[in-house]
Amino acid sequence: MLGRANPMLPMICGIERVKRETHDTFTFELTPPCDYSFAPGQFNMLYVFGVGEVAISVSGDPSKKEALVHTIRAVGSVTKAICKLKGGGSVGVRGAFGSDWQIDKAVGKDVVLVAGGIGLAPLRPVIYHILANRAEFGRVSVLYGTRTTGDLVFRREIEQWRGRFDLDFEVTVDTASADWRGDVGFVTTLIRKASFDPLETVAMLCGPEIMMRFSIAELKKLGLTSEQIFVSMERNMKCAVGFCGHCQFGPAFVCRDGPVFRLDHLEPLFGKHEI
Amino acid sequence: METLEPILAEHPFFRELARPDLHLLVGCASNVVFEAGTTIFREGEDADSFYLIRQGKVALEAESPERHSVIVQTLGKGEVLGWSWLVPPYHWCFDAKAVDLTRAIALNGKCLREKCDENPRLGYELLKGFARIMAERLQAARMQMLDIYGTNT
Ligand SMILES: Cc1cc2nc3c(=O)[nH]c(=O)nc-3n(C[C@H](O)[C@H](O)[C@H](O)COP(=O)(O)OP(=O)(O)OC[C@H]3O[C@@H](n4cnc5c(N)ncnc54)[C@H](O)[C@@H]3O)c2cc1C
Ligand code: FES
Predict the structure, then answer these.
(1) A93 with A13: CB under 8 angstroms?
(2) Complex confidence, ipTM
(3) Does domain A11-97 have CATH number 2.40.30.10?
(4) Chain B contact set for A24 (CB, 8 A)
């Protein structure tokens, strides 16, 4: 987080550019507050004046300080209001908050990133970091599952990444028309086909909880332990700094102790009803 | 003469099958190649074989009048295509089309059924393999149906 006196006070940031990713998802480039920095996996609270505030992960390149990037899917009142904003507008920003993916733990190892839907956004900074420091990592697989081909975000970048020899980027969709030449099926089928050494791999997962549960089961079948698996959790947030208890998940506050957790720290609660 | 036995033994589906069992099966096996775009089988046709994919990609498609053809699943290297040969009335439930050039080993279903009837232990081993695949595919199909990436989940 920034060393600001009051973490509850939003900074006003201008919207430089808006890019439409899909029918309901947009990427916003903001002018960052001065001295702003973030680590991959962290999030900001974005405030739409007169509407409300939501937690949104940073989806941009951590080495590019000139733009603060978020990718937002319009699902409810605040996210829909943000997605109506245009370049030249502004939003309030608090952050960066929460834990990060701890990429340093993956140095020297194979890396498997499993993303579902908008879950690719919080993992994109990890991809940027790995590609900028490619020699530090072993084999790298990005396994991305989404609903249809029309729901794929970051299309142009994905095409570039898929063309690289040092990155295995696989995409699968739930259903597609007959002219789609890619994969159709659940994301777990990609995990089975990915090549990595289970003893020397770090996996990072972000997406709907049910997708993460099945992906964890698949990774464990292949030999990974909970200590090798990191997951990003979503809970409704208010203060984002551990005051209000809104984001409580068992004994943990997702805003402060998460959103990224090593699986063994979360395991007793993961997949439990009513938590 | 060289047989397909070493290739069968290498395929993940048969990796755990004992050598004598593989030896029995190899008489039902043949090498097949499908050019990209070729239809391998169509819904409703007799299901007289299954395929161990060695290379390429196959799409399973369902024809729906409102939405034209929809791909419900793709299968690739190391995977098994088709289990309708095992279940009466032995008709394919989907269309299968080669997306890329696809090389596979075809196993003749009638031949296999006869071998399994003669040798129930082999039949049981084969059934266990298919039950595992069917369970995995059922689970995946449920996830796809649940629309977990939608906004109402
Ligand atoms: C740490 C963290 C990081 C996040 N990062 C991102 C991000 O990078 N991009 C992004 O788009 N979102 C992200 N989210 C999710 C985002 O915060 C929520 O979508 C947002 O809070 C919804 O608020 P709303 O006012 O728009 O919807 P609400 O009015 O609160 O909800 C309206 C409807 O939308 C449904 N809904 C709410 N949230 C979701 C959801 N996440 N998915 C599907 N349906 C939902 C609700 O069930 C409800 O039916 C993140 C959440 C957390 C906790
Ligand atoms: S959002 Fe207030 S404690 Fe986490």
Answers:
(1) yes
(2) 0.87
(3) yes
(4) 151
